[in-house]
Amino acid sequence: MASPKKSRSRTESDKHSKPTAEGITAVLKGDDDEDVGRSASLGLAVDDEVLEFIAALDRFKKEHNRNFPNWSEVLHVLKGLGYRKR
Question: Which residues make Cβ contacts (< 8 Å) with residue 36, sequence separation at least 6?
Fold first, then answer.
């Protein structure tokens, strides 16, 4: 006998919306019941630097109308935040 599906808290429109820095932050911080502990299980530290990078990348995507920036664009965002090669 098949187990019943869990009801989801997301609405149908939420499933098709673009991810935002706020939404990603909520997932990384475990604000979504289904994603609690996901960042910890991946060994990811969610600190202010991570949140700053997520916000900067989100701004870049909005300003340049890019859903999926390429690696050169990601490097551009990182350099804009002050990161340099040693």
Answer: 30
